[in-house]
Amino acid sequence: MEINYQETSKDLLTRIDIHEKYGSANIDVWTNELLQTKPGMNILDVGCGAGKLCFLFDDYTKGAAKITGGDFSEELLEKARAKNAQRGSKVDFQFLDFNKPFAFADGTFDLCTSAFAIYYASDLDFTFGEAHRVLVPGGRLFVSGPLPENKQMFYDIIKEATNATIPPMPGSSRFKGDIFNTISRIFAKTELHKFENHLTFPEVAPFIDYVRASLSEDRKLWTSMFNGKDEYEALIGKIEAVAKKWFDRDGKLVMTKVVGGILATK
Ligand SMILES: C[S@@+](CC[C@H](N)C(=O)[O-])C[C@H]1O[C@@H](n2cnc3c(N)ncnc32)[C@H](O)[C@@H]1O
Question: What CATH code is assigned to 9-265?
Answer without folding.
Answer: 3.40.50.150
